[in-house]
Amino acid sequence: MEINVSQLLKEPIGSSRKNKIDETIDIADDKHDSAVSGEISLLRTQRGILVRAGLHTELEFTCSRCLSAFRYPLDISFEEEYIQTIDVNSGLPLETSGEPGSFTIDEHHIIDLREAVRQYALLLIPMKPLCREGCAGLCPECGRNLNRGPCGCPVRTVDPRWSKLMNLR
Q1: How many CB atoms are located within 10 Å of the residue 92 CB?
Q2: What is the chain's alpha carbon radius of gyration, rounded to the nearest angstrom?
């Protein structure tokens, strides 16, 4: 996900390019690379390059209720400005604003999108991923996955101390 923008940096402000992305990167630090595809547009700004991305990927998770593995689709879209650090014509370092967390164009005029894609994907991942909305989970007695059908465990009776609460339904 590295893009050489040296030619775009030589063009006037407002110049643009579009690129297709179809690569694999490690998003969730789980040693599994995820295929990321989509389109990005690059726009020359006064300070560098504005990147607008519309990407798609799928990550593999474990369901929080039934512990089954499943694929979770993510549509990642972001807009970030990559700040120029080296003048493309003279090769001299440029004064940067030193904004914390800003993305920069490296000394070879390369934009690396991996970190931005990773950060925006992590923001989209649910805290408790579910394989589907109505996941039934596991039986607390035998551990059977209740999505595959009922288990043979006897129905639990309600503790008599809580029986009055059952009338509130």
Answers
A1: 7
A2: 25
Residue 46 phi/psi, 5-degree rounding, is: -65, -35
Q: Where are the extended beta strands (E) located within the chain?
A: 2-4, 16-25, 34-44, 48-62, 69-84, 103-105, 110-112
Judgement on whether residues 6 and 30 belong to the same structural domain of the protein: yes
pLDDT tens for each residue of 40-89: 999 999 988 999 999 999 999 999 999 999 999 999 999 999 988 877 77
Are residue 121 and residue 141 in the same domain, yes or no? no
Cα–Cα dist 111/82, whole Å:
7
The answer on 112 and 65 residing in a single domain is yes
Tokens of 80: 């970030």
Q: Do residues 52 and 40 make contact, with C-beta atoms less than 8 angstroms apart?
A: yes
